[in-house]
Amino acid sequence: MPSFVARVRDSQGKTRTEKITAESLKEARTNLRQQGFVVQDLKQSQGLDLKNLLDFNTRFASVSVKDKAVFSRQFAALVNAGVAIVRSLGVLGEQCSNPKLKQSLLDISLDVQNGTNLSDAMRKHPQCFDGLYVSMIQAGEVGGVLDEVLNRLAKLLEDVARLQNQIKSALSYPMVVGFLAVSIFIGMTVFLIPIFAGIFKELGTELPPLTQFMLDISEILRSWRLIVLIIVVVGLFIAYKQYYKTPVGKQTVDRLSLKVPLFGDLIQKSSVARFSRTFGSLTRSGVPILTSLEIVRDTSGNQVVANAIDAARAEVQQGGMISMALQKEKVFPPMAIQMISIGEETGELDAMLMKIADFYEDEVEQSVKALTSILEPIMIVVLGGMVGTIILSMYLPLFKVFENLG
Predict the structure, then answer these.
(1) Are strands 38-44 and 15-21 parallel, antiparallel or unpaired?
(2) Which residues on adjacent β-strands are paired with residue 17?
(3) How many CB atoms within 10 Å of residue 224?
(4) By the 8 A CB rule, do 323 and 340 touch?
(5) Which residues contact 366 (CB under 8 A, 6 or more apart)?
(6) How far is residue 107 CA from its own chain's centroid?
(7) 9 three-class SS
(8) Contact by Cβ (8 Å): 51, 19
(9) Which are the contacts of 97, defined by CB distance < 8 A and separation ≥ 6?
(10) How far apart are CA 128 and CA 116, in angstroms?
(11) Mean pLDDT of 151-171
(12) Can you give the pLDDT at residue 234?
């Protein structure tokens, strides 16, 4: 679609430059006037300019959970204060720091101004607003409680962001220490071992198996065989990614991830917390249960959990209970299933789901702390073991030399 550059005057009488995409010059002029601008000059954009670079940046930018949470909280405050939706979107779009979200908000504002429903306008931007977000917005529009739904969305997204940060904090320490350990190991192997190798060669002493093994590794890392090793590692990684894209591969890997020592329990608890928080927010906002289960299934992040939710959806369609289906799949903890069953029996499913989410989010936080306390000494031992192995392999021949001299 062609791009046009216009010099316009806004409602405050200030002159500025705007860029707009449209099918024709006439359509571009009409769109600018609908946005409240007085068009002074309009021409088609040519060549690579700053706007083109901004469009490139917008295309490859990503919208985080935190970005959507901040937007939802601010949007709810403006709507609750009585500010029109179009004006609210325009204000939030202008001050938004994320280029992709900024462009999406401005486009949504224009669509709403032209008579499109807010949920339908957001549905055109799936990279910014997923099915969960759009469904809750739609429920808020139908029920006339958009500000309340936006506050629930903000709370939901803030909880999701907090949960993600807790899991990342558990993984960041071992990743950093592991990176340092590998870097130190490679550095000592590539630069230190060859120095000792020359000394051993001059002494003519017989090398212990450990020393010979480390010398062989050093030779591999300093020769063309390193390229072969890198190709093999990259090939295995690509093969894993392709296998994970298949239904069987995703099912197998996700099932194994739930059984990994230390991390499997954390993954299960975080999945239960995410399911409960999202499902409870959707049902509380008035989204039908079947639609809610479909949305939660697509946002579960684990194929085994998604299959269990899909089985629950099929059970509900046949008039059954969610808790019975989840119990058959043996993915959710018994306590969570019992609380869901009580919620179904008492008609307080959304409230019970929120309690489950609160409980398991606290469990995740405690698990993260316990995991971090366990991993710290383990990683220190691993780092010390790697360095100690290299040092020991270098000194063992020297001990033998001293023994022969004695």
Answers:
(1) unpaired
(2) 7
(3) 7
(4) yes
(5) none
(6) 25
(7) strand
(8) yes
(9) none
(10) 18
(11) 79
(12) 93
